[in-house]
Predict the 3D structure of the following.
Amino acid sequence: TSHTVILARSMNVPTLVGVQEASARLQAGQEIIVDANLGIVIPHVTEPLRRFYEQELRTLGAMHARLNCAGEAATTVDGLDLEIAANVGSAEEVSAAMERGADGIGLFRTEMLFMDRDTPPREEEQYEVYSEAARAARGAPLIIRLLDIGGDKPAPYLKFPAEANPFLGYRGVRIYAEHRDLLRAQFRAILRASVSGDVRILVPMICCVEEFQEVRKVADELRDELAAQGVAMGDVQIGAMLEVPSCAFQMEELCDEADFFSIGSNDLTQYFLAADRDNAKVSGIYSWAHPSFLRLLKQIVDVAHERGRWIGLCGEMADSSAALPILIALGLDEISLASPRIPAVRRAVCNSQFSSCLQVFKQALECHTRAEVEELLRDFAPVDRDLPLLAPDLMLESTATSKAEAIKEMTDALWLAGRANSPHLVEEAVWQREDIYSTGFGFGFALPHCKSEQMTANSIVVAKLATPVAWGSTDQQPVDVIFLVAMRASSYGKEHMRVFAQLSRMVMREEFRDRVREIADAQELIQFLKQSLSPGAPAPAK
């Protein structure tokens, strides 16, 4: 979670770190595949791999197009609202985030203005950037974090001394007293830009009330100074970024000083657990899923809301699908994440139920270990979705040229339809059965099936292949029609066996097989299959 990785994610650039021997085994100009979802680098691209990833890109493109058209508020099925904001580092990124449906900018990282240059930016330069960002936010909140330099974000012209442990040293709010001119110029620029939108200021690395009081004092002085000069300003709120665990035990006092709060989950996690987030040797310790950390978050959010303060959360936790039930249950006002992920997270919130999330959160708080929390969340389904087994977007005309391609295309269809949280894990569940015995039924039909906690609705996917593929069927015939039966783990019993048994009986009938192949219209095929699969249905007629 270094600063470089965070920026890469915000720009939608696939990124891997800690790839051993990469510099030794890879050559400049070599064609490789970087799959950040699976955490692998493929140095030799074969034709089957190329086809696989071309299909993956088509699937991702289809999902992005579908999500970006949603435009709905992030509200759970039982009515809890959650703002989904973006983390950005430039005015240009603000525009892109708003296009992706962001409810605002939860974190504008200003340190990018101060890095990779020989002198700090002048007030006027900053004013132009912040004004452009405020206009691009279109009236939505723009939370600008004051300069958070130091640690993994150096600025050579400041000539900071070498430190044995920079993350615990001279950074964030701690540099402001010595570099008062930097703080004043930035404050003036932000206050002047506030007339262009709903601008708010966030103070980083606060560890005690005195630090925040000192910064607010400077802000008040500059407000008076600008007002005396006749400069127009908006009503700018000033908030504290909660990254240091000591803040959790002074929340009531901080609520008396700060207008709002933003939890910086990356630094708060590493400081709370004493685990450097950039050190691979302790990566097994650095995790938001520790029960003690979840209890810390609950304490912080509860006090903030008791005192009437708005509170959001940014960082890697906000971007984690596994953490979403926890974030919903906490009752946060907002989560802020890399903008490419906003549409998917928005849909996940809309498919969630606050009451169910609250129940699993209470269980997580009672866990003893990180592993227990992770297992609990892995088995958790955010809402019991009552969707029909068959749907038009699950009726496929496929150009797959292999069994593997066909299975991937069908599990991708489940994901695109919002019926699976992870197509990769559902695909893995299908292959767990295929590796034991082939589901090639004979007569050119295959009936792969699986149970998975990743399924959010029981489903049947039907794929008709333009070119039959080998499936290892008992009659050795290639397959041109596939029924994938994918069930939620919690409803696997009788429903799964009833559907699978009924399909098996129907496929034995020649008239059924012929009719399935003949029907070209998706809705007509769905109606035919519904009739065929209904309990006590008569033998299908041609």
Summary: The chain is about 40% helix and 15% strand. Residues 70-378 form a domain with the TIM Barrel fold (CATH 3.20.20.60).
